[in-house]
Design brief:
alpha/beta; 276 residues; 10 helices; 38% helix; single chain; ten-stranded mixed beta sheet; 10 strands
């Protein structure tokens, strides 16, 4: 069972009418076309707020006109991130796209630790983006890679998106500067993954970075290679102090100026290895 972004489904975009959430709509057009998805704009309002249903419906109509896509509006009462996960599950969405406000960090949408909770409970992959420059094309996809079996699960999605956009894949592995063993251990896996990707007709490079600041190193590298998207597993509570543990994946989302696609690992019945 390979993990892919589902086609012919819906892409859910939570909206708070901020500039950032409006930019995230436009950035979805190409992906929606590639995956043949409809777009659902979701606005959640709390008890003391007004329901902006009319405004939301206008926005949906305008979005549909602009993109030529099917766009629906959904107005719900409740907490934005709980509602986003719940609706994505209920409507079998293939993807959630969230614009995060740079100035206020997650405040327009989430309280501090709510974002990791939101990502952890997401029933499908989530793209978070916090810059307001519109990236409709995607030339370089950055894939952080480590030795966990989960790390390999994202390869099919990375390949899927590289095919859609005609993008190159930039694999990056970060290891502790005094751990040469790790670098030697990971090399055969990197070569295997690289070979697999190249056999699919996609350009691919890999880079190893000795550093103790994993998240910063990944984001810095992504900027250096003009990355348009970072694709990571939302891993949590991993034993063996793996490089891309839960704290790191959350941190990448928090500090990245480049959109980040976070994927929850498949539920493992047994630990398996190799690329399926």
């Amino acid at each position: 069972k390979r993990m892919l972004i589902k086609e012919n489904q819906s892409i859910l975009i939570p909206i708070d009418f901020s500039k950032q959430s409006l930019v995230s709509i436009q950035q979805t057009y190409n992906l929606a076309k590639f995956t043949n998805s409809k777009i659902i704009l979701l606005h959640a309002f709390s008890g003391n707020e007004v329901d902006r249903k009319e405004e939301l419906e206008q926005l949906a109509a305008q979005t549909s006109k602009e993109s030529g896509l099917v766009v629906e509006a959904l107005s719900v009462k409740g907490d934005i991130y709980e509602q986003t996960d719940a609706k994505a599950k209920e409507l079998f969405c293939g993807l959630i796209i969230v614009g995060l406000d740079t100035q206020v960090r997650f405040r327009s949408f989430f309280g501090g630790n709510n974002v990791s909770k939101f990502l952890k409970n997401a029933p499908c992959p989530v793209i978070t983006m916090r810059s307001t420059d519109n990236r409709n094309s995607c030339k370089n996809i950055v894939m952080p890679f480590d030795l966990t079996p989960e790390s390999r699960e994202k390869v099919p999605i990375v390949v899927q998106l590289a095919h859609y956009y005609g993008a190159d894949i930039r694999i990056v592995s970060v290891f502790s500067p005094n751990d040469e063993k790790y670098e030697n251990l990971i090399l055969p896996y990197l070569n295997q993954v690289k070979k697999y990707i190249k056999e699919k007709g996609i350009n691919c490079t890999n880079k190893s970075i000795p550093s103790n600041n994993v998240a910063e190193s990944v984001v810095e590298y992504a900027n250096k290679v003009d990355g348009d998207l970072i694709i990571q597993m939302n891993k949590r509570d991993l034993s063996f102090g793996e490089m891309f543990g839960g704290a790191t994946s959350h941190k990448i989302v928090e500090i990245s100026n480049i959109p980040v696609l976070s994927i929850n690992p498949m539920i493992r019945e047994s630990i398996s290895s190799g690329i399926h």
